């Protein structure tokens, strides 16, 4: 079995790199954390990796729109290399600040395989503030996204101030028509949140929490799968554990949905 | 030439910021505005071509999907527009990142005179808005005149071509740096100099300082360096090092303690030594997990065999009181540098907060600089940005409202880090500087900001306190430095590291040079934000986000390369020596030359008279209060009290699970909306070990006796840890004292002797309880001047002193996180138990406060009895026979039973008649007494036998059951139903006061 190598970017205010690398390792990848500058200076080569993760954090303090300056720096210094990386059939994952970066880079939504155009945005939450809470997410079963294979509904934490997905009508229609919407905020029973706060925590239109490119290989989402790397990350785990105990259910906890997202990525590369 | 770019959200997009202002204007001031739109203003003071301007406009500053922008004023309709920008020299974080982005995309470098400034413009639409309305919104909501300036334009006076005009808040200091010699002919002259320069020298220190500089040997040595009289930089250095903030002169003072009741007297020499140091060192000998205490920036305990955890707590009261956002963000970002500067450096893994402010709805005559509501908003936001942008989870916190904090608010910030037990095969907790090591300053640059912050916080606050010490922390710059220093640590490049906080280089270099016993500093090498600073200003400036590092010359090249890769500025500013002298030059001319041992030699000890008047003699008594008969209304009103009710809006703004380590979150329960007893994290991801963390504050008891305030505060923090399943035998503590001034003065501080006695009693309790519970004090700080002078209705001023306050933070190890439990009831049919005894201890309680009483019977801690119970509970949790556990804290049994029910979203039936009680025969006493040492536990009825066996011989009782029917039913002592209320109603009242806030 060949080694699947994942690169998690660090530096300039990014901050979820340790747990993202950990989640990838748990999923069977070899994960390296590297500073954006070591990639730019050439000490690290994208060609050595098959999964590139733009993780969470506050790159450049998010001062001029979340992910904007990171996108500028990546595009200016590494634009061609990233496009070549995608052309080679590899995977790109953007989580939270990483998702914001992907839409500013234009890697998402990547309409017509144009990976340079900004046509959707993540803007300030309608509630007017940063928010940390867990959300229920519904996976759009028709999406080609390879990261969510086999998942239907799942819970993950959101932690952001600028997560409201926004696009103008034509772009929205294309996203829906071309099955590029991957995750939607939902009610605890799985029905659409339909903009209801706090189930849709930010006012995203169409309850959108994550999208992919037409190939399904580039995926961006606001929630944090890497923060559900252990069953005790779930806010209600002591309740779930107690219920299982009463049913005399001694089965080991299943792999968290957060880790399944990373496992799907590793499996895809392995089977390529 | 400067350019001004205005950027706004497209009109079809909801403007959350603008709408927030509209709502606050209405809620806070009753001003009706129809609509507010916000505009980001980026003012570029650099020579750029048309094409370059276009590129940065479209690629950086304008999102094509959501925004539009123009180098001309944007045409957004308004009746009034308000422009708000920083004053010159105030940290403009977005301005700095804008420079980085522009340099990157255009491949240029800004010159020293070029910069980018950010500001905001708000467009207000509303019929009948007056200038006074708009000015109130500007001054009371949008800007703080200490750090910001604003301009107001009515629509009819707006020139659409020029707009606000171009405003460049550039610092221009037309000043040639100069060292001033200060003669010291007499004590009174030096006192005058101290007053004039804001040195805040203690009068007792002055003769000693003079005698040093008048000493013949010293003078001869100084003459060789070209010095005679002390220089300003030398006096500043001594002032910083001797400040109460750095030196804890109060705690190290000599107290003449007298009990006015018994007439007994006692001399207490050095509270720090007798009540903190000795007990902690005694416990360290017993407990091998205590790795490093009492000397470094933070204390170190063992997490597992390969990792240590590091903890400390700080306050940032005075700056937050002046500029809430700036003070709080500087506070949290600042305390995060302490673990980073402990041992060879620790990675930050968790933060906590405690805010003590005046009543949020205060409407009395006193005029604090910031209204408590605004102050709290700002403090919350400061810690939000500081914590979130640092990527450190804020997992626990508390807020307390009391009139006494109108004079000065308290902002507690706590930081926890983790480091490998060894770095390159050497103990990570050890560090020293050696002769030949280079002195390197990393991180931010030095400006005039923060000058005299330390001495200002050692003084009572008045409206004339210079605002120069107010800063705005920059978590972005610090996060880069944090990542860099940890990389450098792991490569073995760091000999010594410490932070530049209070006192700036003066403290960090002065203290680190004690290890090698000397240093040579070339002050001209220190990178500045702008030219024109005097040498002494460079030396004591508290500009943030800086660390001082000792690096061997052979490691310099690698250290600097790594620094560059991380985009962090590092500069060699000198060398450590063993000369015994702190020697500072500026362009080869000596400006300071002080013996290293001066600061540790014979400075006189501060002295305090402490007179204890027992509460009875102060006229305190139990109120004459007949029992109520409407317990339903009483319980609901108690739940709605500001110090009891839900404050979920705060913790939701804080990222409390970044790093993916969260085990027990701040909010738990079926609907994740009730506070947990403690936070638990799994800081080393691939282990099942956890670190539990909790804090407690009970200043109301100080009105009766600070001994019991302190005991109960520690006991609460301990119970919080025990309740989630943490190990009772590995608890570490952090004490943060905030006290009003204790120096007696017949006019200015007539009750100073009592306050001093209260401090002595508090420290004695700290010693007694920590020894009994075996809690080493891993770290601690004190802030001794929490008083303010506030103006009233007639121009008169009132001294307002805070309650004597101790925040106690506690950590412990969780051996297996999968056994942790939470406080929410889990299943209908479960049994409800009370552990511990309820006594007639309502003195200082929330219940008495509800009626405006203080009372006398303050809760007391009985360590021996409590410890047995805590151990038994620990065992029961370990055996996994407990479904939920929750301590009974402020508000008493009634409040906390309700919280357990709310957490589970399940009903409960409980019988007060069987609650283990000592000399209580009233329902209200059982419900609201705040006796320490108690828990509420729910268990599966199948575990009843094993559970009761486990607690044999201890005070406990089964008082009821968890029910499916969603009702909270309390039966009184006489068997009658006292309260029957739906859990929904409990929650509605508990959330009512702040439920609308987001």
Structural commentary:
The complex is a heterodimer of chains A (about 270) and B (about 1000). Chain A is built from seven helices and eleven strands. With about 270 residues, chain A is α/β, with parallel strands linked by helices. The termini of chain A are close together. The model of chain A has no long low-confidence stretch (mean pLDDT about 95). With about 1000 residues, chain B is an alpha+beta fold. Chain B has 28 helices and 43 strands. In chain B, the strands form ten sheets. Chain B has a seven-stranded mixed beta sheet with strand order 18-20-17-21-19-22-23, sandwiched between helices. In chain B, a hairpin with an 8-residue loop joins strand 28 and strand 29. In chain B, helix 1 packs across helix 4 (about 130-140) and helix 21 (about 705-725) packs parallel to helix 22 (about 750-775).
Unreliable spans of chain B: 461-467
Number of strands of chain A: 11
Oligomer: heterodimer
Mean pLDDT over the full residue set of chain B: 95
Strand arrangement within the widest β-sheet of chain A reads: 2-1-3-4-11-10-9-6-7
Shape of chain A: globular
Keywords:
heterodimer; A: 272 residues; alpha/beta; 7 helices; 28% helix; globular; B: 998 residues; alpha+beta; seven-stranded mixed sheet; 28 helices; 43 strands; 31% helix; 25% strand
Short structural summary:
With 272 residues, chain A is α/β, with parallel strands linked by helices.
Write the layout of secondary structure elements.
The complex is a heterodimer of chains A (about 270) and B (about 1000).
Chain A: E1 5-10, H1 17-26, E2 30-35, H2 36-40, E3 51-54, H3 68-87, E4 91-95, H4 97-105, E5 121-123, E6 131-139, E7 153-160, E8 164-166, H5 169-177, E9 181-186, E10 208-212, E11 218-221, H6 237-246, H7 257-270
Parallel strand pairs in A: 1-2, 1-3, 3-4, 4-11
Antiparallel strand pairs in A: 5-8, 6-7, 6-9, 9-10, 10-11
Helix pairs in contact in A: 3-4
Chain B: E1 2-9, H1 16-29, E2 35-45, H2 50-61, E3 67-70, E4 80-86, H3 93-106, E5 115-125, H4 131-142, E6 148-154, H5 187-197, H6 206-214, H7 216-224, H8 232-242, H9 244-247, E7 254-259, E8 265-269, H10 271-286, E9 290-292, E10 299-304, E11 307-315, H11 317-322, H12 324-340, E12 347-357, H13 372-388, E13 394-401, E14 410-420, E15 422-423, E16 426-427, E17 438-443, H14 453-457, H15 475-490, E18 496-499, H16 504-516, E19 519-522, H17 535-540, E20 546-551, H18 556-565, E21 570-576, E22 581-586, E23 589-595, E24 607-612, H19 631-639, H20 648-652, E25 662-664, E26 667-668, E27 674-675, E28 679-681, E29 690-697, H21 706-724, E30 732-738, H22 752-773, E31 777-783, E32 787-791, E33 797-801, E34 805-814, E35 831-835, E36 838-839, H23 846-850, H24 863-878, E37 884-887, H25 893-904, E38 907-911, E39 917-918, H26 923-928, E40 935-939, H27 944-950, E41 956-963, E42 967-971, E43 977-982, H28 983-991
Parallel strand pairs in B: 7-24, 12-13, 19-22, 30-31, 36-39, 38-42
Antiparallel strand pairs in B: 1-2, 1-3, 2-5, 4-5, 4-6, 7-8, 9-10, 10-11, 11-14, 12-14, 15-16, 17-20, 17-21, 18-20, 19-21, 22-23, 25-28, 26-27, 28-29, 29-34, 30-34, 32-33, 35-40, 35-41, 37-40, 38-41, 42-43
Helix pairs in contact in B: 1-4, 2-3, 10-22, 12-13, 12-15, 21-22, 21-24
